[in-house]
Design goal:
The complex is a heterodimer.
Chain A lengths: L6 E2 L5 E2 L2 E12 L2 E12 L3 E5 L6 H8 L7 E6 L2 E2 L5 H6 L2 E4 L11 H7 L9 H6 L3 H19 L15 H14 L4 E5 L7 H18 L2 E5 L3 H7 L2 E6 L2 E6 L1 H5 L2 H8 L5
Parallel strand pairs in A: 5-10, 5-11, 8-9, 9-10
Antiparallel strand pairs in A: 1-2, 3-4, 3-6, 6-7, 11-12
Chain B lengths: L1 H8 L3 H11 L4 E7 L2 E6 H18 L6 E5 L4 H12 L3 E5 L5 H11 L3 E4 L2 H10 L8 E4 L13 E3 H10 L1 H13 L6 E6 L9 E5 H14 L7 E3 L7 H15 L1 E4 L6 H8 L3 E3 L2 H16 L3 H22 L6 H22 L6 E4 L6 H9 L4 E7 L4 E5 L12 E2 L4 E4 L4 E5 L6 E2 L3 H7 L6 E9 L6 E6 L4 E2 L5 E2 L1 H9 L4 E7 L6 E7 L1 H10 L7 H5 L2 H19 L9 E6 L19 H7 L1 H9 L3 E9 L5 E9 L1 E2 L7 H6 L1
The chains are: A alpha/beta, B alpha/beta.
Chain lengths: ~270, ~650
């Protein structure tokens, strides 16, 4: 790859080399072109945002990254190698974890159990061992529980550890979902509208957690968000999409002053 | 002689630590729930941790007599910090963790703290915000590194690193540490605590080792506290009570201090630990009782009947059983049955299964609330104390517990009542001085060591128990000459679950009026039950049906107040339910949630005027401070209501 050099952010953080590169991605659903020839990269340790108006193709892009969609054209390069066509769980095994726009937790299970599911990719004990709760399964559970408890402590959700997720308010559910993703110890964390539907206080909390995750674990974060204030404050670099095309890419300041971006958000006549 | 022996050898907290490490080495000294598990440290381990930290502090350059501020929630590490500070001859100054930066600035500046030990980023940020104004401030140690990685670390040190450096420099610094520790005697300062201050700026109360250790010894003997006891440390570390329970008595008796996982998990942790020695302000008991009652209302009819049947029985015989009075055989069997079906499970759910001694203090507790807990067999008692007395002034001995007195003088305490009714005391726990405030010291403590409590009260002739009426300076006279004691009426009002806070006015006036805060939990639950929609505290507080309920409560209180000859003039004629909750962040309450009358009077002067000029409603705008220190304002139109009063003839006769 050409550009494996890192860079230093405005607030003095050293960002590493390229972690993932999307090369000329196109995604079609029948005749509809959801993503059209988009290329961008994500560096190790940075917070990368994908923004754009409704229907711009942001979530489709995230689904391509997470392996849920296979791009019609183009290549995904991950950790310096071209990624073959993969199932989402295979992508997860490679260290990509995500949260969902409309929360996808197990409502009847406790917070603890939900977060434990995030460790599934790290459990290898046999079915038999798990059934009789002996040997490998037991050791793994203890090991994983400790990791999970650290995440719970980090996201300050100790008080709801044993509460079924269905009884929690929306803002907390979002946090539990983040906890589950973090429990997987991802090298790339995908957040699909982490602030959607939140009030100002919840947004502030969530922003802090995202920054802390990046700071504390050095996790690379790729997020989609509508709230421009949040995006501009949080992210190091921003990709702007509109009608499936990339119309801007750069630091928040560069993007903010880009005429194409302003047009896309304020609206101009399309031909 | 044991007394002289103890004063020569065990004359400081670090000395007690050394004794505990050798005597109770393998017993748990601290537990904290972290990562879902109770982590524990024995006395021997604690001693090693504290020593490493003390060496680390020496390494940072702590000099004898330095003040080290400690800010954070109850955590073993912060308790160790206090003892480590003492070990190196410095003075620990615990601060209220919820104080805003401004309040912190005053205290840090006043004590001239060179070092700060802070729990997390939130506290570190507050200190950084004000550090330019602090001339003496040099280094800060933090506990939780989260979010602090990018900070400039020239003045900032991680707790564990300070300990590591201490361990590394052990050979060089050990002799100095030994010298400092052996230099501590009964007169050296043990801790400095800032009073919450209902009036004016907080004052730094200097307490010596003598104060703390003598008090801890006397009070531990009074309730026969032993090494096997368990306490839950959840009250602010800056409060003298926590210092006495979690350090003084814990180190004297050698019992284990348990720290909750977070403020939100306190109730769960309480239940898991099931302390044998427990302290809580009345508010905590009230909240618990309210939540039990709310949950019982949601229970099935069978459970409801069972609960009612056995609670009624408990009220009848429970307190008698606790006081060792004779109770009929049938009643005993019924009570046993109740214990099995109701009280036992309830106590277990509350975390009170093993409580041997429980105390409440700080405010008056409602008789119904007090009796509720006692009837279930929980040995809940009252004590009366002050920071200046190292807590204990009076306390109730087992078997002599009543809700309207605060007990007999604690061991070693002498009491006297002045002409004007103010209570004075003298004890080994009496503070040394107010830091850098000789005037106030002289004004509070006279040459013979008597200290004015600032409370008016009297000693009951036949029992020797002390009864407190009100703050001496709040007690006044009404225009008619009748006695005005606002707290007396406020407490009666606050005993209703619907009323969270009450402030009564009337000094020098013809009649009394009141501000009230509703209890959002209790009233909110009632609203939900009755299909009353509300969007905010303000809206619910102004709801006509809520006002009608409150009016009813006031009428009942008035009837009860009218029955008291001395205080019958204090009936509440008109009242307002305030549009916001009184809050410590707005300066309306102290950090220990006591009402600051003068500030409230100034701030809500327009509403008070409306209470007395007969207007049916009042429009007002109030400034509020958010948790992060930003300001905003609330506008509201409040309804002024009149309450039914009982015509009083008695007081007029008395006045004539």
């Amino acid at each position: 790859m050409k550009d494996t050099e890192g860079y230093v952010t405005a607030d003095g953080r050293q960002i590493g080399g390229t972690l993932m590169e999307m090369k000329n991605i196109t995604l079609r659903f029948g005749g509809v072109v959801a993503i059209k020839d988009i290329s961008f990269d994500v560096h190790e340790g940075e917070i990368r945002a994908i923004i754009g108006p409704n229907g711009a193709g942001k979530s489709s892009m995230l689904n391509v990254i997470s392996g849920f969609y296979t791009p019609s054209e183009g290549e995904v390069w991950y950790q310096g190698a071209k990624r073959p066509q993969m199932k989402p769980y295979e992508v997860a095994r490679m260290g990509v974890a995500r949260t969902f726009q409309n929360i996808a937790l197990f409502e009847g299970m406790t917070v603890l159990d939900n977060v434990m599911t995030g460790r599934l990719t790290h459990m290898n004990a046999s079915v038999l061992s798990q059934a009789i709760w002996w040997g490998r399964a037991r050791e793994e559970e203890i090991e994983n529980r400790e990791k999970v408890e650290r995440v719970i402590d980090f996201l300050e959700i100790q008080h709801i550890r044993k509460t079924p997720v269905g009884r929690l308010p929306y803002g907390l559910k979002k946090r539990v979902e983040l906890a589950r993703a973090l429990a997987a110890e991802p090298s790339l964390l995908l957040l699909d509208e982490p602030m959607a539907g939140m009030n100002v206080e919840e947004k502030e909390d969530m922003s802090r957690f995202i920054l802390d995750v990046n700071d504390e674990f050095g996790t690379t974060i790729c997020l989609i968000e509508h709230d421009m204030g949040v995006v501009m404050d949080l992210s190091d670099r921003v990709v702007v999409m509109d009608y499936g095309k990339k119309i801007g890419d750069g630091t928040p300041d560069e993007v903010r002053n880009d005429q194409a971006v302003i047009d896309a958000y304020l609206g101009v006549a399309h031909d | 002689m044991t007394a002289s022996q103890s004063s020569s050898e065990l004359c400081s907290v670090p000395a007690l630590l050394a004794r505990n490490a050798s005597q109770y080495g393998a017993r748990p000294a601290y537990r904290e729930k972290e990562f879902g598990i109770w982590q524990s440290w024995t006395w021997a381990e604690t001693s090693v941790e504290i020593e490493a930290l003390a060496l680390g502090l020496l390494n940072l350059g702590v000099a004898p007599g330095d003040h080290i501020a400690i800010i954070g929630r109850n955590r073993p590490y912060l308790y160790w910090s206090m003892v480590a500070a003492q070990s190196v001859g410095a003075v620990p100054v615990p601060l209220y963790q919820d104080a805003v930066a401004e309040e912190m600035a005053y205290v840090l500046d006043h004590c001239g703290a060179r070092f700060v030990i802070a729990a997390d980023q939130e506290q570190v940020d507050k200190v950084i915000e004000i550090q330019d104004r602090l001339e003496t401030f040099e280094h800060m140690v933090y506990l939780d590194p989260r979010g602090l990685r990018k900070y400039d670390h020239s003045k900032l040190h991680q707790f564990s690193h300070v300990q590591d450096q201490g361990r590394a420099a052990r050979d060089e610094l050990m002799s100095e540490l030994d010298k400092r520790r052996s230099g501590l005697d009964y007169d050296s300062t043990c801790v400095m605590l800032y009073t919450s201050g209902t009036t004016g700026k907080p004052k730094g109360v200097v307490l010596s080792n003598r104060n703390i250790i003598e008090t801890a010894k006397n009070s531990s003997e009074f309730d026969s506290l032993v090494a096997g006891d368990e306490v839950l440390a959840y009250l602010p570390m800056a409060w003298v009570g926590d210092f006495i329970f979690s350090i003084g008595q814990a180190y004297w008796a050698g019992f284990c201090v348990n720290c909750p996982e977070s403020a939100d998990t306190m109730m769960t942790d309480l239940r898991e630990i099931a302390p044998s020695y427990y302290f809580a302000p009345p508010r905590v008991f009230e909240t618990q009782l309210t939540s039990i009652m709310i949950r019982m209302e949601d229970a099935g009819p069978f459970k409801k009947r069972l609960f009612k049947r056995f609670m009624d029985h408990a009220r009848k015989v429970g307190p008698k059983l606790l006081d060792g009075e004779s109770v009929g055989a049938m009643d005993r069997i019924m009570y046993r049955l109740g214990e099995w079906t109701t009280y036992g499970p309830l106590k277990n759910a509350l975390g009170f299964s093993k409580v041997r001694v429980g105390y409440t203090a700080g405010e008056a507790i409602g008789p119904e609330i007090f009796d509720f807990y006692r009837s279930m067999g929980i040995n809940l008692k009252q004590l009366y104390g002050q920071t200046e007395a190292s807590v204990f002034i009076t306390q109730q001995p087992d078997g002599e517990v009543r809700s309207d007195t605060v007990g007999v003088p604690s061991p070693g305490v002498e009491l006297k009542i002045a002409e004007n009714g103010e209570v004075y005391y003298r004890s080994p726990g009496v503070f040394v001085e107010y830091f850098k405030n000789a005037d106030s010291t002289a004004g509070t403590k006279d040459a013979e060591g008597w200290v004015a409590t600032g409370d008016a009260g009297f000693i009951e002739k036949d029992t020797g128990h002390l009864r407190i009426i009100d703050r001496a300076k709040d007690v006044g006279q009404m225009a008619s000459g009748a006695l005005f004691a606002p707290k007396y009426v406020e407490n009666k009002l606050k005993f209703y679950p619907n009323i969270l806070e009450a402030v009564v006015f009337g000094n020098g006036r013809d009649e009394c009026t009141a501000f009230l805060n509703i209890d959002l939990t209790a009233v909110g639950n009632w609203a939900e039950r009755n299909n009353i929609a509300y969007a905010s505290y303000q809206e619910l507080a102004g709801h006509p049906e809520v006002l009608a309920q409150i009016e009813g409560h006031i009428a009942e209180v008035n009837a009860s107040v009218a029955g008291d000859e001395m205080l019958s003039g204090c009936q509440v004629h008109r009242f307002v339910v305030l549009h916001k909750e009184l809050d410590a962040d707005d300066g309306e309450l102290t950090r220990t949630r006591k009402v600051r009358r003068r500030i409230i009077e100034e701030k809500f002067a327009d509403i008070i005027t409306a209470l007395y000029d007969g207007s049916p409603q009042v429009s007002t705008e109030t400034e509020v401070t958010y948790e992060d220190g930003r300001k905003g304002s609330i506008k509201a139109t409040l309804e002024v209501r009149s309450a039914k009063t009982v015509p009083v003839t008695v007081s007029k006769v008395a006045a004539e």
